[in-house]
Specification:
Radius of gyration: 26 Å
Helix content: 10-25%
Number of domains: 3
Number of helices: 5
Mean pLDDT: 80
Length: 296
């Protein structure tokens, strides 16, 4: 039974320095299970349902409740810029990270994800807190990023007369993109690891490990995005024809893929000097080899 003013425990100054309990009329009713919750929570402590937060208690709520698992869908808070009087120390504490690390994020001077949160309410609360501290942020959901839908694999690229032609690896279909429509070139690495186990099954269902081998590999990739297609195209080391580099082509694919990013930017910038083409190894990046979106 919920505490009433008559049954609520009284404040005893002999054992408490301050009254930390909430009053009965300050508690919030959960719309899902009708149980009462403290006013400094975003979710019901009984059923997990969302709670209506009162403005006077918003500052006491932590917007980052837990770290999400890789398989969970989340809401990403993107930091865009900071005002001249922004409180860096409080912002770092809000993100639960060290101040020097947050300062390093600010020196990038490009929109970067700073938090991945499990609900819209928490994301909105964090954005509001950042705004009060002098920072401009926005939110991008995992569903909008659609990381499971990988960029189209390419087998070749040709840049001529202000148009970049990209060849689909599977269908051989050619997609022509005007140079001034090219928005983003992202360079990165795909890291893969595999563990092989050989076990011997014995009596009683018991197993004995005979040997274990672990392998790991890193593959450089380039993702290319236009302003009208957020899915993009991906250049892999294997199966890509680097003859588009001409005299710049080297003997090793690992060298050629780095040169390709530089050459693509140079040629496209020459064709569209009035537009800014971003080439960045970190802009909008996601783990698990997903994809990077220019809308971030």
């Amino acid at each position: 039974m919920a505490d009433t003013p008559e049954t609520q425990p009284a404040f005893d100054p002999l054992i408490q320095t301050e009254n930390i309990a909430f009053k009965a009329d300050e508690m919030i009713d959960c719309d899902s299970c009708s149980r009462k919750n403290p006013p400094n929570r975003l979710k019901c402590m009984y059923c997990g349902g969302g709670l209506a937060v009162k403005a006077e208690y918003a500052d006491g709520i932590s917007p980052i409740s837990r770290k999400l698992e890789a398989w969970e869908k989340g809401f990403n808070v993107i930091l865009h810029s900071a005002n001249s009087g922004a409180d860096v120390k409080k912002a770092a504490a809000l993100l639960q990270i060290e101040t020097p690390f947050f300062e390093e994020i600010l020196t990038a001077k490009t929109p970067l994800p700073v938090a991945r949160i499990e609900s819209v309410a928490e994301a909105d609360l964090l954005i509001s807190r950042f705004s009060d501290l002098g920072f401009e942020c926005s939110m991008v959901t995992d569903e909008n990023l659609n990381a499971d839908d990988l960029p189209v694999r390419t087998s070749g690229i040709d840049i001529n007369d202000g148009v970049i032609s990209i060849i689909d690896f599977n269908t051989r279909e050619v997609t022509a993109i005007p140079a001034d429509e090219l928005a983003l070139i992202v360079t990165g690495m795909l890291s893969k690891s595999k563990v092989d186990l050989l076990e011997k099954k014995g009596r009683g269902g018991k197993t004995k490990l005979l040997y274990e081998t672990e392998t790991a590999s890193d593959e450089a990739v380039i993702d290319i995005y236009s302003r009208s297609d957020a899915k993009g195209f991906r250049v892999n080391l294997a199966g890509f024809d680097f003859s588009c580099l001409g005299e710049d082509k080297g003997l090793l694919a690992s060298e050629n893929i780095r040169r390709l990013a530089v050459v693509a930017k140079r040629k496209c910038s020459e064709c569209a000097a009035h537009r800014r083409l971003c080439i960045d190894p970190t802009h909008g990046c996601r783990r698990l080899g997903g994809r990077c979106s220019p809308r971030c």
